[in-house]
């Protein structure tokens, strides 16, 4: 079952702070970004929050489960909990702050282009020619 767009909009609305949160469609579901870093997932109409020291407040409030088979466990924030956890957006921003910045990729070295006027190979002399 995939997530409905209405669910994504509802979660973003509950988090508030529109400039700080965004979602991107990924692997058939959604990744939730806080300040440009993945802080959780929205899968099967559920919000899954990364389990990190910055999200420890959710330990006693939320269940833990995999967002998809084989994923790391996440805190599952139920729909009713979106309103019951008043500082959820703050927790998500703290998760983003605790994550490392993206590493800049080294630029690729320029590739050598074959020139149009490439030197032709000289014909080999045969063994029998003088």
Helical percentage: 10-25%
And the CATH topology?
Yope Regulator, Chain: A
CATH class designation: Alpha Beta
Number of β-strand runs = 6
Number of domains: 1
Strand fraction equals 25-35%
Give the CATH H-level superfamily.
YgaC/TfoX-N like chaperone
> Using only CA atoms, what is the Rg?
26 Å
Examine the secondary-structure arrangement and name the CATH architecture: 2-Layer Sandwich
Principal-axes geometry comes out as elongated
- SSE-based structural type: alpha+beta
Note poorly predicted spans. Answer: none
> What's the rounded overall pLDDT mean?
86
C-alpha termini separation: 80 Å
Largest sheet: 6 strands, antiparallel
Strand and helix order: HEEEEEEHH
Please, could you describe this protein's structure?
- The protein is 20% helix and 25% strand.
- With 130 residues, the chain is of the alpha+beta class.
- It has a single domain, classed as YgaC/TfoX-N like chaperone (Yope Regulator, Chain: A).
- A 6-stranded antiparallel beta sheet has the order 1-2-3-4-6-5.
- The model has no long low-confidence stretch (mean pLDDT 86).
- The protein starts with a helix and ends in a 32-residue tail after the last helix.
- It is built from 3 helices and 6 strands, in the order αββββββαα.
- Strand 1 and strand 2 form a beta hairpin.
Question: Secondary-structure blueprint of this entry?
Answer:
Blueprint: H1 5-15, E1 21-26, E2 29-34, E3 37-43, E4 46-50, E5 63-66, E6 73-77, H2 81-84, H3 88-98
Antiparallel strand pairs: 1-2, 2-3, 3-4, 4-6, 5-6
């Amino acid at each position: 079952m995939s997530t409905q767009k209405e669910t994504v909009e509802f979660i973003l609305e509950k988090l508030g702070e529109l400039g700080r949160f965004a979602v991107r469609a990924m692997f058939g579901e959604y990744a939730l970004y806080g300040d440009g870093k993945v802080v959780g997932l929205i899968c099967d109409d559920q919000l899954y929050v990364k389990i990190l020291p910055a999200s420890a407040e959710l330990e006693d409030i939320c269940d833990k489960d995999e967002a998809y088979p084989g994923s790391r466990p996440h805190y599952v924030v139920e729909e009713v909990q979106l309103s019951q956890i008043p500082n959820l957006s703050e927790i998500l921003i703290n998760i983003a702050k605790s994550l490392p910045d993206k590493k800049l990729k080294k630029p690729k070295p320029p590739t050598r282009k074959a020139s149009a006027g490439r030197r032709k190979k000289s014909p080999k002399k045969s063994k029998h020619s003088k």
